[in-house]
Write a structure and sequence with these properties.
The chain is mostly helical. It has 2 domains: 12-190, Growth Hormone, Chain: A, CATH 1.20.1250; 207-410, MFS general substrate transporter like domains (Growth Hormone, Chain: A), CATH 1.20.1250.20. It has helices at residues 16-42, 47-56, 59-75, 77-91, 101-129, 134-162, 164-184, 208-215, 221-250, 255-281, 285-301, 310-339, 344-373, 375-409. The longest helix has 35 residues, at 375-409. It is globular and about 60 Å long.
Length: 410
Amino acid sequence: MRGEIPARPAGLSQPTPIYLVGLFGMGYTDFYIFLIPLYGLSLGMSAGEVGMLVGGRSLLAVFLSIHIGVLMDRFGTRRVTLFFVWLAIALAPVFPLLPWFWPLLILQIVNGGALSFAWSGAQTLIAQLAEGEAEYIGRFSFYARIGTTAAPIIAGLAWDFGGAWPSYGLGALWGAVLTIALLRAPEAKARSTPPTRMFRLRDLLPSLSDYASCFALMAIPAVATSMAIIFLRTATQGVQSSLYVVYLHGIGLVGTEIGLLFATVEIFSGLGHLFAGKAMRFGDPQKTMLSGTVISILVICATPFLGGLYVLLLGAQVVRGWLSGVVQPMMFSVQAKAVGPYRQGAVVGLRQTMNRMAAIVIPPVMGVIADAWGATASFVILGGVLMLLCLPITRLTQREVAVAAEHASD
């Protein structure tokens, strides 16, 4: 019944460990994201080299997220996640030993993949244990938001007071705490019912059939709709990290003022996560996700029309952060329920692949538009393009809602 609070899933009888996995799992990634540009600059590397180091962390995730997700479904999410957490712990003390660009880039690619797959495992585990319920996925996301807020602050303090060795040592310690949380969290049942078959070396190699079956999940309307919405959300995040900063700097805002606007999104996104369960129970989730995304696009692209008034810019970030926080757990919930309990790793891998591809493609496109027409006009152009992309998603959503209503009336 709509509006009814779902019973707590059996896998979350003791939810504290998995919520701590969310806090330390997302923070684990952000800790290293924050450190690598500081380390590169301290070695005298150029802006281009630092940019390559920052971007290198996503390389393996683009190509292997689906494969790793399938391994989680097949052999158990927690054990696969622990492997990548331990790999990142082992690699942490290697960073201060490599002051040369190319070896450091290779290390960053491998370590970035390990961190990305560890976070994918955390997302997969909560989807399995929560049985796709947005109420609990939202709480998990709230704790993850705490981790993303705290990690850069802690990493910055460690860097300022000690440099590379204490900073990366603290990163290894962060991974150790995450390990404890994972070991205390329950393992979700793997696809092949116990006893799970033994791991073989050839399982390390990606399988074309696994990739084909993963992309076939896009044939499920709920998955296709939510993946399209993820693409649009990634686009708005790209606007904030590029054009938005350029525009704000151009109208005379200083770094602290811009940083406060970014922090506002994070804070209200975390609060929105806690409301996702209620939003899931009231109204159709597909319509809520789409409408929230459309409003977010309009809010960010309306930035030049706010007159540079800081209070209006702050209010826009409050709205966008809140909507982003509500929509994200709903998307994860819709996907989790659409694919069933034994494809959670696969759908998270597909989601990560689409997300990384969008993150790689969209910022350069935005840069070209800004160079050609200027930052202010680019907001209008991008807003128009993104709104046009919403039209086929709207048709798909309407069709899915109609089919669901027809099935409910049978």
